[in-house]
Amino acid sequence: MSELMLLVLRIGFLVMLWFFVFGVVYSLRSDLFGVRVRKMPAGEAGAAPVASARAAAPRPTASSAQVATRLVITSGPKVGLEVPLGAADSMTIGRSSESGLVIRDDYTSSHHARLSKRGDIWTLQDLGSTNGTFLAGQRLGDTPTQVALGTPIKVGATTFELRA
């Protein structure tokens, strides 16, 4: 083999090696820092369709006019934790430290789901997670779905619900 051919092969090998290194760094970066979640413009927030909850009926509450004020974890690593919703209009759920509810397990995406408030109604939307978000045992799509008080929501290995 000529020296020119060896030089071309060496340079080609180095280029392929650098592509591999950049691919690994990009993969690590996206796993550590997550993917940016697109926020809906204010004009579209009220116009988005809300799917009805197809799941089983939630536990009965004292009054159907009650508004959720807290999120309670009913099973999983943080069982018993109560997160006050306060004046928040939206909360992201996921593994990322930027999330309103951080769930650290292998089955949860960095930005897994979004819990949003429209008036007195809370909606849940899956943000394209790999393992899915479940509302009363039914897998959600990317369409916001209304969440009733006491309805179990499952993200990864954690189950929680809205309570008044």
Automatic annotation (TrEMBL):
Alphabetical keyword list: Membrane, Phosphoprotein, Transmembrane, Transmembrane helix
UniProt domain FHA: residue ranges: 91-140
Matching Gene3D superfamilies: 2.60.200.20
Membrane-spanning parts: 6-28
Pfam families: FHA
The keyword Zinc belongs to this UniProt entry's keyword annotation: no
Name this protein carries in UniProt: FHA domain-containing protein
Lineage, top ranks: Bacteria, Bacillati, Actinomycetota, Actinomycetes, Micrococcales
